[in-house]
Specification:
It contains 8 helices and 7 strands; from the N terminus they run αααααβααββββββα. It is an alpha/beta fold and about 210 residues long. Strand 3 and strand 4 form a beta hairpin.
Length: about 210
């Protein structure tokens, strides 16, 4: 209690300009700490970036999300070449893999040159997550921390495909229209879903292997 009183009495003696300066210094320190946490840990990036994408939904941490984050990090380091994630719907799989992960590699990991091809069985779902990531990287929060690393270009900045100044891009595609597309990472949701083609029904994952691998 005495320590709180001492701090209060000290602050009372400060001028308005001194109080503003202290508040700005504290804000800079907090920003620096957040940036450091995000650059060192993908799961921390998800935690801090959550409100930008889902401001109306509280972030709920769980071991499953830690496991997803850890395995996605391993694809970045090269320890995992192909990753299959099987968890129930509504457990942040799409957000983690096709929204937060590319944004984390571009900004916090300073890998803006990377190219992402994000495939879904539905064009609407593919565009939905593409729009979410674009909003994230263009947000005030993200640009304040990594705006010097990630700048979207004006001539290729749409819901379906957007590119940055280091020639990295994120392209959204429906599974039936991926022929000719390439990326450093191919993110497919969901792998086992069936789509109907001129050759009959086929799994998205098998279609990816046929056209991209």
């Amino acid at each position: 209690m005495n320590q709180v009183t001492d701090v209060y009495e000290h602050l009372k003696k400060l001028s308005r300009d001194e109080l503003i300066a202290k508040a700005r210094a504290a804000s800079k320190l907090e920003t620096r700490d957040v940036k450091k946490e995000c650059e060192e840990s993908f799961i921390k990036f998800i935690e801090h970036a959550w409100d930008v994408i889902e401001p109306g939904q509280p972030y709920i941490h769980g071991w499953h999300l830690e496991a997803v984050a850890m395995h996605l990090e391993a694809t970045h380091t090269g320890d995992i070449k192909r990753l299959l994630i099987n968890i129930p719907p509504g457990m942040t799989k799409s957000l983690a893999t096709t929204v937060f992960f590319p944004a984390w590699l571009w900004g916090p990991k300073d890998q803006a040159h990377l190219r992402f091809l994000c495939v879904s069985h539905s064009q609407n779902l593919a565009v939905r997550d593409s729009t979410r990531m674009r909003r994230l990287v263009q947000s005030e929060w993200y640009q304040k921390l990594w705006g010097d690393r990630v700048v979207l270009t004006g001539d290729q900045n749409s819901k379906i495909k957007f590119e940055n100044s280091k020639f990295g891009f994120r392209e959204a595609a429906a599974a039936g229209s991926i022929t000719g597309s390439r990326g450093d990472f191919v993110l497919c949701l969901p792998y086992n879903s069936m789509i109907y083609t001129s050759q009959g029904p086929i799994q998205i994952g098998k279609l990816l292997k046929k056209n991209l691998m």
